[in-house]
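Handoff note, outgoing to incoming analyst
You'll be picking up this chain. Sequence as last confirmed:
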Amino acid sequence: MSGIAPSEFILICLIALMILGPERLPGVTRKIGAWLGKARQMSRSIQRQLEDEMDVEKNFGFDPKELDPNEMLKPRDDDTFSPLHEHEDEEGDEDEDEAGNDVPAEPVEKPAQ
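Most recent structure output, in case you need it:
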């Protein structure tokens, strides 16, 4: 019982009886019991709410234990940028300057205004 020996519990009850008296002791113990019941109910409610929030499979539709990190590192066809993709200049219409930025091979003419 929360680290209190039975002899210590009896001693605490006797001291409470002497301080509060036999008239007020039952009312005080009922109030303490009600407070403890409310505290337990609140802690169970918070625990259930946290478990619901942490349920990734229910909230996001997948189980994180089934994810393969190696599969996530492979480049996909629909990637717009990935460090794994190499720069391919197959069409030849763009070159790079000294800083490595892409620049058009031919200057683009602006329309006359």
